[in-house]
Amino acid sequence: MGQGIDVAVSTVILALLPTGGEPGDGPGDEPGSGPGGPRLHLPLVRRTREPHRDCWALPGGWVRPEESLADAGRRTLAETTGLRPSYLEQLYTFGRPDRSPTGRVVSVVYTALVRSREAAAAQEGENVRWSVADDATGLAFDHDEVVRYALWRLRTKIEYGSIARHFIGERFSLSQLREVHESVLQRRLDPANFRRAVEASGTVEPTDERLTGGRHRPPRLYRAVPAPHGAAPPWEGAGPPA
Amino acid sequence: MGQGIDVAVSTVILALLPTGGEPGDGPGDEPGSGPGGPRLHLPLVRRTREPHRDCWALPGGWVRPEESLADAGRRTLAETTGLRPSYLEQLYTFGRPDRSPTGRVVSVVYTALVRSREAAAAQEGENVRWSVADDATGLAFDHDEVVRYALWRLRTKIEYGSIARHFIGERFSLSQLREVHESVLQRRLDPANFRRAVEASGTVEPTDERLTGGRHRPPRLYRAVPAPHGAAPPWEGAGPPA
After folding, report:
1. Mean pLDDT of each 10-residue bin along chain A, 242 residues long
2. Where are stretches of biased composition, namely Low complexity (chains A, B) (predicted)?
3. Closest residue of A to B142, CA-based?
């Protein structure tokens, strides 16, 4: 064809990290913002070449002719940050004709939710930083818009089981799950309403286990229900999407 | 870059149409299959050039350098079928390195649900046909996989308000809504369970109106609740997604 369109990938990797400069200290991350609990952070990479040299951007790069889109996402993420999430979910493809100043670039964006321990694998330094996701602005290309969309999708299509599995772990109390949702949404949730919504969702189920500790009535632990149809596109079968 | 990857768009347009050859009579559409009610159909286009000449394929084509991805989807759909749905939602981007025999092609796929009256705008003929979606196999490229994925997404991420709005209209009884879902899912649904699930979903709400007709207790009419956050990506704001 020779149509003059290039294909890139970018990744939005979200983790709930404590606020206050550790480990995130990226652009727009004002210490002390937020109510003090953990907030959604994402790794950004400083560009070392034009266009937008020295600007912060999402990790990413060009798709090689022989690799799949998801493989390109995994490779460029690992090359720039050292992160290797177990599963990347395709988020959206951005293709506005004017989104790059040096020619037409279509960018396929992948996303993943990772736990704070996994997030520590990102080699922070002069050119890689974790930023509070809501404060990440002034990024290269249309990456501000990409980040806004990733956050909008996470918050509006919120799925209790998936959030729990990716951000907490296999077993969790309903209070732990609610606190994670409060951090994601950045607002308080009514415990009784939250419990009803979670139970009606059918995406988490009670186990026979209870939280350990010295309490008189330790809270019951729940787990995410495996998605009945497989929650991932059939050909990506590697795991559950975010 | 000159990376040798071309960018195409394809569209999966789904409509609930009566079975039995009217208006769908596409490849794989065996008259008499299904339980007799309406079934999901999609328009297919016969390819007039290589590769896969004479095979049926999803409507689509190359993205022009100056047009957005959604505009390319709208243009190629109108050019090949005459269809102009009010809103196209981006479904997924398919990019397996071997998906086209003549070079690397990344295809951004858009989808829309249309009512049967809108579907009639497709100029059926030798090279355009409506096919029963579940029976559409043997298509060009990886389009079998694309159709399977579109159906999987519609059926697993089913959203009562959206299905109602796109397939029925502004006002509907719960029985009408259930019948549409039965056609989409191709199985019977228990009326009481369906009513509970719909009411719990918060995506439809009762109106003060009732179905007209001579019945003693005409059923109440419902309507779709507008999505609180805007259900579409902010920059696409044209309307609600499928």
Report:
1. 86 91 43 65 95 96 95 96 93 95 95 91 87 96 96 87 86 94 94 91 91 82 75 44 31
2. 226-242
3. A235
Of A7, A145, A155, the CB nearest to B3: A7
d(CA B119, CA B187): 23
Nearest to B114 by CA among B167, B150, B170: B167
* DSSP conformation class of B28: T
Task: State the smallest CA–CA distance between residue A94 and chain B in angstroms.
Answer: 8
Q: Dihedral angle at the C-alpha atoms of B194, B196, B198, B201, nearest 10 degrees?
A: -140
Please say whether the beta carbons of B220 and B210 come within 8 A. Answer: yes
pLDDT of B242 > 80? The answer is no
CB A39 within 8 A of CB A16: yes
Per the listing, tokens 């937020």 go with: A34
> What residue in B sits closest to A67 (Cα-Cα)?
B97
What is the C-alpha radius of gyration for chain A, rounded to an integer number of angstroms?
Answer: 19
The span from the CA of B62 to the CA of A87, in Å, is 30
Model confidence over B97-156: pLDDT tens digits?
Answer: 999 998 999 999 999 999 988 898 887 888 999 999 999 999 999 999 999 999 999 998
Rounded Cα gap, residues B65 and A5, in angstroms? 7
Domains of chain A by start residue, with CATH: 6-156 (3.90.79.10), 160-224 (1.10.10.10)
Query: CB pairs below 8 Å between A and B: how many?
Result: 95
> Can you give B67-85 as a three-state secondary structure string?
CCHHHHHHHHHHHHHCCCC
Q: How confident is the model at residue B1 (pLDDT cuts 50, 70, 90)?
A: low
CA distances from A237 to A88, A191, A220, B111 (A): 11, 35, 31, 22
d(Cα B7, Cα A226) in Å, to the nearest integer?
A: 35
For residues B10 and B100, is the Cβ–Cβ distance under 8 A?
Answer: no
Nearest CA distance, A152 vs chain B (angstrom)? 8
- Provide the ipTM: 0.84
Determine which helix (DSSP H) or strand (DSSP E) holds A165, and give its type and residue range: helix A160-167
Rounded distance, CA A58 to CA A142, Å? 10
**Considering only CA atoms, which of B155, B242, B160 is closest in space to residue B204?**
B160
Residues β-bridged to residue B204: B224
List, in order, residues 6 or more apart from A218 with CB less than 8 Å away.
A210, A211, A212
